[in-house]
Write a structure and sequence with these properties.
Strand order of the largest sheet: 1-2
CATH topology of one domain: Serine Threonine Protein Phosphatase 5, Tetratricopeptide repeat
Helix content: 55-70%
Number of helices: 35
CATH class of one domain: Mainly Alpha
Number of strands: 2
Shape: elongated
């Protein structure tokens, strides 16, 4: 009886709590039931989804860590999922589906479904005003669930409802923040940016909202690469961080921004604080790597840093990240210019299992940088290639490819200079000393090949035994009774023969599959570039073979010297312009000036480049080259640049130079290519300061294409590109080079190889005369 009476009372209360009557009892009832019957569960569902996403989120430490509300966005949410939620649960009512086959919503769809149910059953919209303030919370939850699903325009519908109808609600500021972020993400960039800045400058916000606003404003600035401006909101976000996880994450992002701004000391302090907070295994490791990446040899001690990193790599679970710790030591060693240790620890890093592909790519890049600094350009380009294939992001691939393309061009020049230097030195020796030199070289070659053969045989033997002893291997040879592959001798022999057929008896070393495939090794490639004889050449041990290759005529030696000087000028300038390497650039150009060059134009250009390199960097050397140019070449355009740097010395060609060019051009049209090359050489000597020299150089390249090999044509074009950068002729030469190296590429002038009747090595292009640059001015030097 009592139970029946209680039921009647409860029913009467439910009937009395109408959503149409604005009474205290009704407001209290619907507010309480909104919370317990829907909103609490919706927020629990939202927290559950975020916990799931954060657990599965893979951090990208190659970028500044995002700290705003959207860094763990659900990338798997689909339009179909969202459409299903809209169909089943419309905002503010609309009923639920009676179809029992409809799948129960989960994740963000469940959040929206529960919030919609609250709105449908407990909204007290009376006389155009909502009396149940919990409805604002329900709409905010709908807006957030849609925002995190990437449905920004749909999210604005719910969020704008909160900001317009509940301006004094405690949910207003949070709704305004998500409205701003949805505007930015949805493409309303400028309005969103303005709103976000105003919200950031607003004072009367709760601590939680201040953190969220500062964090998202910092993300916005970082995404737009406004790193200096991002420091303040990052520090503010760190101050208002709600828990240790947020504090560590914000501090890590702050350290990354300091690092991008070149503030290595501040970055190191930030990452040290992160490490002390023990934020979790992965971030602990990455914070130590970040400390190493911000190592400054001027203020930090390499030995103590190295010792700490190596000690960490031996501790417990840290051993699984050994490759990353070794990479960190290699990077510090490189910055400390301890290149031997950089190579040592790079090799150790690359031998360990991969724990992070991004760090593996960084290790390849650092290894390449070290080889570049040591002058091992073939190895550098090879490891840059490995970095490109390992990096996942296009921007990293493009960055390395751009650097590697330039390096490969410079590498060709470097080895050309080295090869020509060697030939010129040997050519000057008496015949007896030449014979002695090559006899010693042959003996050294024999010993190296013998040692390599012994090593390869030993490695192959170990490979066949799987690195085990003979006794251990014999335990597998139990006849053919057992069906297991390695117990079956005939199967084992058959498999080994097939393996050797495919891989050609590989040596036991890194990347053995690549190295086993027939083709030149890195050593062979380097020898080819240096002009050394190939390891498999049948005449490599014959003294006469070397002696007959030494050039004898004065013309041959002069041509070698001029080519060497021109290439070394372009090489030294390229080190500075492309890699900003003042030391290597200066050393290269100083060697050129000391040689000395055959042509005065080359000498004065080299001196001017040295003056340009040392200007505002080394006052003593700047004054030295300034005095030498003004003393030896006072009437040149280079002296003019030094005395009047604000004046643009783009002077018109003299009548004589222009007439000479036109006559040379006519010879080219008459197919007198050897005469063209001779006149170009004379013009370079005669008009060293005239702008038109760039056109002579390009015309010479065209003449080379008609009479010499493809390689010589490419080399002549590369000299134009590097020696006369930023001229129309350099641009034209670059286009031709791209066409030669990428024959399938469109929109480039046609340059097709064919046999020349007068010279079997010639390259003939099918271009009309307009493809040769007309006699127009252009600057051949870099000011």
């Amino acid at each position: 009886m009592k139970k029946y009476a209680f039921s009647l009372v409860a029913a009467s209360l439910l009937i009395g709590c109408s959503t149409r009557k604005d009474t205290f009892q009704n407001r209290s009832y619907h507010k309480m039931t909104s919370w317990f019957n829907g909103i609490f569960n919706a927020e629990e569902e939202l927290d559950k989804k975020h916990t799931e996403l954060k657990t599965n989120y893979v951090e990208d430490y190659g970028e500044v860590l995002p700290i705003g509300v959207n860094y763990f966005k659900d990338k798997n949410a689909t339009e179909e999922d969202f459409g299903l939620a809209l169909m089943n649960n419309s905002i503010g009512g609309g009923g639920t589906s009676n179809n029992t086959n409809v799948q129960k919503p989960t994740g963000y769809q469940a959040v929206e479904a529960k919030a919609n149910k609250v709105i449908e059953k407990h909204s007290m919209l009376i006389s155009g005003s909502e009396r149940n303030l919990m409805i604002a919370r329900a709409y905010l939850l709908i807006g957030k669930s849609r925002f995190f699903s990437g449905k920004y325009f749909e999210a604005l519908d719910a969020l704008n409802y909160v900001t317009k109808n509940f301006p004094k609600s405690k949910f207003y500021d949070e709704a305004l923040l998500y409205t701003t972020l949805a505007d930015i993400k949805g493409g309303n960039y400028f309005d969103g940016q303005e709103k976000l800045l105003k919200l950031y400058e607003k004072e009367n916000l709760s601590k939680e909202i201040k953190y969220l606003v500062a964090a998202n404003y910092a993300d916005f600035l970082v995404e737009n690469e406004l790193y200096e401006e991002a420091l303040e909101p990052l520090e503010k976000a760190h101050y208002y961080s709600r828990n240790s996880t947020d504090k560590a994450r914000t501090l890590f992002a702050l350290g990354q921004v300091f690092s991008k701004l070149g503030k290595q000391e501040e970055a190191g302090q930030a990452f040290t604080e992160v490490y002390k907070m023990r934020p979790g295994f992965d971030m602990e490791v990455k914070s130590q790597l970040a400390i190493a990446s911000n190592f400054d040899p001027k203020i930090n001690n390499y030995s103590s840093y190295k010792e700490h990193i190596l000690d960490q790599s031996k501790k417990g679970i840290y051993t699984s990240k050994k490759n990353e710790f070794y990479y960190a030591v290699a990077e510090m060693a490189y910055k400390n210019q301890n290149y031997d240790e950089a190579i040592k620890y790079s090799e150790l890093s690359l031998k360990e299992p991969v724990s992070d592909p991004y760090i593996r790519a960084k290790a390849y890049e650092n290894f390449a940088n070290t080889h570049f600094s040591k002058g091992n350009y073939v190895y550098a380009t090879s490891y840059y290639d490995s970095a490109v294939t390992t990096y996942a992001k296009e921007k990293d691939k493009n960055r390395i490819n751009e650097k590697n393309t330039i390096l490969k061009n410079l590498m060709q020049m470097h080895y050309l200079v080295e090869r020509n230097d060697s030939i010129l030195r040997i050519a000057q020796l008496p015949k007896e000393e030449q014979e002695k030199f090559f006899t010693n070289h042959i003996e050294k070659l024999k010993k190296e090949e013998e040692a390599r053969l012994v090593k390869e045989q030993q490695e192959m033997s170990e490979f066949q035994l799987g690195g085990k002893t003979t006794g251990f291997a014999s335990s597998f040879d139990q006849g053919n009774s057992n069906k297991f592959y390695f117990y079956n001798q005939s199967l084992k022999n058959s498999g080994l023969a097939e393996f050797q057929r495919i891989w050609n008896n590989p040596t036991l070393k890194d990347n053995w599959r690549n190295s086993a495939i027939p083709g030149p090794t890195l050593e062979d490639k380097e020898n080819e570039l240096k002009g050394n004889i190939a390891s498999g050449d049948p005449r490599r041990f014959e003294l006469g073979y070397y002696l007959e290759k030494i050039p004898k005529s004065v013309k041959e030696l002069n041509d070698l010297k001029i080519t060497r000087d021109t290439t070394q000028l372009a090489l030294g300038t390229g080190y500075f312009d492309h890699f900003n390497d003042t030391k290597l650039s200066a050393e290269t150009l100083e060697k050129l000036v000391a040689s000395p060059p055959k042509q005065k134009e080359i000498e004065v250009q080299a001196m001017y480049q040295l003056y340009r390199i040392h200007k505002d960097r080394d006052k003593v050397l700047e004054e030295k080259y300034k005095s030498e140019i003004l003393g030896k070449y006072p009437n040149t355009i280079y002296a003019g640049y030094i005395l009047n740097p604000e004046v643009d010395f783009i002077t018109a060609e003299t009548k004589e130079a222009l007439a000479d060019y036109e006559a040379t051009y006519q010879l080219y049209k008459d197919e007198k290519y050897e005469e063209v090359k001779a006149r170009v050489a004379q013009a370079i000597e005669k008009y060293p300061t005239e702008i038109i020299i760039a056109k002579f150089a390009l015309l010479n390249a065209f003449a080379v294409s008609k009479t010499e090999s493809k390689e010589n044509f490419e080399r002549a074009l590369e000299i134009v590109v590097l020696a006369y950068d930023k001229t129309d002729e350099a641009k034209r030469a670059k286009q031709l080079l791209e066409k030669l190296k990428n024959p399938t590429k469109e929109n480039f002038p046609t340059v097709e190889p064919q046999k020349n009747q007068e010279n079997n090595e010639g390259w003939s292009h099918e271009e009309e005369s307009e493809n040769v640059p007309p006699p127009m001015p252009g600057s051949p030097i870099r000011k």
